[in-house]
Design brief:
The chain has about 375 residues and is of the alpha/beta class. The chain folds into two domains: about 1-45 and about 150-215 and about 320-375, FAD/NAD(P)-binding domain, CATH 3.50.50.60; about 85-145 and about 220-320, D-Amino Acid Oxidase, subunit A, domain 2 (D-Amino Acid Oxidase, Chain A, domain 2, 2-Layer Sandwich), CATH 3.30.9. The chain contains nine helices and 17 strands. Helix 1 links the parallel strand 1 (about 1-10) and strand 2 (about 30). Bound molecules: flavin-adenine dinucleotide. Flavin-adenine dinucleotide binds near residues 10 and 39.
């Protein structure tokens, strides 16, 4: 049996970035993914480094501010470009109540060093002349980040391999041997591996993997559908999203909330039609795609004849309190878990470095105890 210091289950943003920091610090690391690297949810996302839509608590605000700063030098550190750039975001607002709420959020965000401002409808029309602004009050504006998720995945994987990590795709974890309260071995369909520590970073699949060690993780998922159009002329200049995007989809059996923007090759990536389900799959529905199309054409009528080139769906995981799970599982001594981050792309450069420190038994510069899975030790309930 081949032995490693750390086995990471999951080759998405979280697993690969943590593998990079662990192997850079000298740990012998094995990453196992059941499919292609990034083939879970990471490579299927919009590539936005979001800055202003999440929680406004001090830890999250710091992660956003410092995460964006870290991206500015990360391509050089990893030795590969992932098409990082700063990009404008309009969060469009349709009600007085939402306008008031965003005025307050803008103040908090700006004070925390994440400049965000309210933009009246007339200004929004000037910035986005092709937009149908009927019924809109205006928008909140911020400067977020944008990257190519496929390249971001590859940059971390290549840098981890250069530091000595072994990364195996198409290596599904099918079993774990637990003895004396520790995982002693991880089994795939092909091999068995030993490790001092096992870290499960399997996104929405995390419960199915920790269950192999006899541990239930409180994670569920929604299934989100997205599409990409043919290249279009330069008529949309910023990422555009509904300010109440998350409220629209929250807790619904089926809902469509629009978030979209141009990517560097001139196409338009449009998200999300969301379905609550227990099934983990990558499929799309006629319902999802047609509703996404209807919503986008309401906002940009000039897109009515634009062709859809491709569509896809992926699970997005969440926890009972909608905060991430990051830390040691209380039931098994050497089992670490990380999943369900909110602004994943923004925060992952920092969080992965701190997770690597935790796994190596070091203290990260910031206490992430509030994300510990131990908070669910007394049980949990789902609100929606
Ligand atoms: C349409 C859409 C748009 C999004 N847009 C954004 C965005 O713009 N910005 C942003 O920050 N976030 C976005 N997200 C969310 C983001 O994609 C996720 O937060 C992120 O990809 C999660 O990364 P991860 O590493 O935790 O999980 P994943 O990328 O899902 O990685 C988990 C990996 O575990 C592997 N795995 C599962 N089971 C096993 C097993 N038994 N053995 C071995 N391997 C296994 C899977 O194959 C998978 O590759 C979006 C999500 C969707 C669906």
């Amino acid at each position: 049996m081949k032995n490693f210091d750390v086995i990471l289950v999951g080759g998405g943003f979280l697993g690969l970035s943590t593998a990079y920091h662990l192997s850079k610090a000298g740990s012998r690391v094995l990453v196992l993914d059941k499919g292609d690297l990034g083939g879970g949810t990471s490579s299927a996302c919009s590539g936005r480094a979001q800055v202003c839509e999440g929680y406004l608590d001090p830890l999250n605000l710091m992660l956003i501010k410092e995460g964006i700063k870290r991206h500015e030098t990360l391509e050089e550190e990893l030795g590969m470009s992932y098409d990082w750039k700063r990009f404008g975001l309009f969060l469009i607002i349709r009600t007085e109540e939402l306008w008031k709420r965003w005025e307050e959020r803008c103040e908090i965000l700006t004070k925390a060093g994440i400049p965000t401002e309210m933009v009246a409808r007339a200004e929004l029309e000037k910035a986005e002349p092709a937009m149908n602004t009927a019924g809109l009050l205006g928008a909140a504006y911020s400067l977020e980040g944008l990257l190519n998720p496929l390249l971001f995945t590859r940059a971390y994987a290549q840098a981890a391999e250069r530091c000595g990590a072994t990364i195996l795709s198409h290596a599904k974890v099918t079993g774990m041997d637990v003895e004396g309260g520790r995982v002693r071995a991880v089994r795939t369909e092909q091999d068995t591996y030993g490790a001092d520590t096992v870290a499960v970073m399997a996104g929405a699949w995390t419960p199915t993997v920790t269950r192999l060690a006899g541990v239930e993780t409180p994670v569920r998922h929604t299934h989100a559908e997205a599409l990409v159009t043919e290249p279009i002329p330069e008529i949309i200049h910023n990422t555009i999203e509904l300010a109440d995007f998350y409220e629209i989809i929250h807790g619904k059996q089926q809902a469509v909330a629009i978030g979209f923007g141009p990517v560097p090759n001139g196409t338009l990536v449009i998200t999300e039609a969301v379905t609550m389900t227990d099934k983990l799959h990558a499929g799309v529905s006629h319902w999802g795609l047609s509703h996404l199309a209807v919503e986008i054409v309401k906002l940009f009528p000039c897109l009515a004849k634009t062709r859809v080139m491709r569509s896809w769906g992926r699970p997005t995981s969440f926890t009972p309190d909608e905060e991430p799970i990051i830390g040691w599982m209380p039931q098994v001594q050497n089992l670490f878990t990380a999943t369900s981050m909110v602004e994943t792309i923004t925060a992952v450069p920092l969080v992965s470095e701190w997770m690597a420190m935790m796994i190596r038994g070091e203290s990260p510069p910031v206490d992430m105890g509030r994300y510990s899975p131990a908070r669910f030790s007394g049980g949990w309930s789902w609100h929606s």
